[in-house]
Write a structure and sequence with these properties.
Strand order of the largest sheet: 1-2
Number of helices: 15
Number of domains: 3
Largest sheet: 2 strands, parallel
Shape: elongated
Strand content: under 5%
Structural class: mainly alpha
Helix content: 40-55%
Radius of gyration: 40 Å
């Protein structure tokens, strides 16, 4: 192929030139579209999600408020602090054990100072607990009221209240308390008969139908001012039937007590009893007062 033929080969017709121009035009137009147009998918807003996010701040605030709430503490007799209650109050295991050992001798602490001498709790913890100590009325008459130096205005008495021994209370006495009718009063007295007498006001929590508010009212007017004359159970010699009839021992637990006793010998104290499976440890301080070892 000579040079002239090559030149003729490169010549385009009018239609071909028009097509080439159109092709270049299309290419340039596509490049411009690609450069200026955003092809990212448009995300539709989820209305429910947006609403939830708008409430998130309020939710976080409520959670923070919930975690900052402090538990309400009610007046109590420190002689009947259980392991669990002592732990919640901030006492160490050693401090709780000292109090329980003291109580096993049938002794009572009658003031905040005596409580500290027995348990060895630090002053900082005593200052927190002492405003809520509630001793029987006969203790106050003896003049052992040094715990009153720890002021607690929410529980300051506006009027003189005569404390009645809960074990001497009549149905009429109980009905005077707001929230207690004839039925609830009868349940309280029936519970007392089953137990042989209350040893702590904490046992009223076991009476069905008594709300925390009503129990708080009861604590204002009633207390265990004197230990009842209990017919104690000889834990090392009582039969299975006798153990089963005790309010805090069910048939299965009584059977385990007899089995443990036969395999390990006599129980020396309440600490031996709480080793048994399903023993109500949180009520051990009550139960021990109904038993003889």
């Amino acid at each position: 192929m000579d040079f002239k033929q090559k030149i003729n080969f490169l010549k385009f017709t009018k239609e071909q030139r028009t097509g080439i121009v159109l092709l270049f035009g299309i290419i340039i137009a596509l490049q411009l579209v690609y450069y200026f147009v955003d092809f990212d998918p448009i995300q539709e807003k989820d209305s429910s999600k947006q609403q939830w996010l708008s409430l998130q701040t309020e939710v976080d605030s409520l959670k923070l408020h919930q975690f900052n709430d402090e538990p309400v503490m009610y007046p109590f007799n420190p002689n009947f602090i259980s392991d669990y209650k002592g732990y919640k109050l901030g006492m160490s295991v050693e401090e709780i054990d000292r109090l329980l050992a003291f109580r096993r001798q049938n002794k009572f602490v009658n003031s905040a100072k005596e409580f500290q001498n027995v348990t060895k709790v630090p002053d900082s913890l005593l200052n927190t607990m002492a405003p809520f100590f509630k001793f029987p009325d006969w203790v106050n008459k003896k003049g052992n009221n040094d715990y009153e130096n720890f002021s607690n205005k929410p529980f300051a008495k506006k009027e003189k209240i005569t404390i009645v021994d809960i074990n001497q209370a009549t149905p009429e006495d109980l009905i005077k308390i707001n929230g207690i009718g004839e039925v609830i009063a009868l349940r309280i007295l029936t519970q007392k008969e089953k137990l042989g007498g209350f040893v702590s006001m904490e046992q009223l929590k076991e009476v069905w139908g008594l709300s925390p508010e009503v129990i708080l009212n009861l604590n204002k007017y009633f207390a265990v001012t004197k230990m009842p004359n209990l017919n104690k159970i000889d834990i090392n010699n009582a039969s299975l039937k006798e153990l089963s009839q005790f309010f805090y021992f069910k048939q299965d637990l009584a059977r385990q007590i007899v089995k443990y006793r036969s395999m390990n010998g006599d129980f020396k104290n309440i600490e031996d009893l709480i080793k048994i499976n399903n023993f109500p440890v949180e009520k051990a301080s009550f139960i021990s007062l109904y038993l003889s070892f």
